[in-house]
Design goal:
150 residues, alpha+beta, three-stranded antiparallel sheet, 4 helices, 3 strands
């Protein structure tokens, strides 16, 4: 039960940070403008209909269905492995990121992106970053588990 509570706390934190940051961007940056915040990092206000980092743009219904299937698989995996140390962290990060972006899709039909890196990297948001880091941590945990049982 402790792992579920920890995962839930991470979900709440990610969703709150994501939605607060998107709200701030929507109310402070004009679409198309760019504000430099650090060398190589700018804030922009853009929207995308795809998944993380603007990949697979298209139907909201198709994207939502794919995300729902992936989240269901993640939840099944988490329930089966919730006793594994740290499994709650990537689960919470992935769920929180997906929920944060889903809120945007339901609210306005697209996702607010605002963090822009150099070299043509597409803008992203806190939810996208949480999903990316969550996937990385999940793979590391699965790999560690595989090597520990081998």
């Amino acid at each position: 039960m402790r792992a579920i509570a920890r995962a839930a706390l991470v979900v709440v934190l990610v969703v709150a940070l994501d939605q607060l940051s998107k709200h701030a961007v929507e109310h402070s940056i004009v679409p198309g403008e760019e504000e430099k915040v650090l060398p190589g990092i700018s804030l922009v206000y853009s929207r995308n209909r795809g998944v993380a980092f603007g990949l697979q743009p298209g139907s909201n219904v198709a994207v939502t269905a794919i995300i729902a299937i992936a989240l269901l698989a993640l939840l099944v995996y988490f329930v089966r492995h919730r006793a594994d140390p740290w499994m709650w962290l990537p689960t919470g990060m992935l769920l929180g990121g997906a929920i944060g972006n889903l809120i945007d899709r339901i609210r306005v039909g697209s996702v607010v992106d605002f963090i822009k890196l150099p070299l043509g990297w597409p803008p992203f948001n806190i939810a996208d970053a949480s999903i990316t880091l969550g996937v990385l941590i999940l793979f590391l945990l699965i790999d560690h588990r595989r090597h520990a049982t081998a």
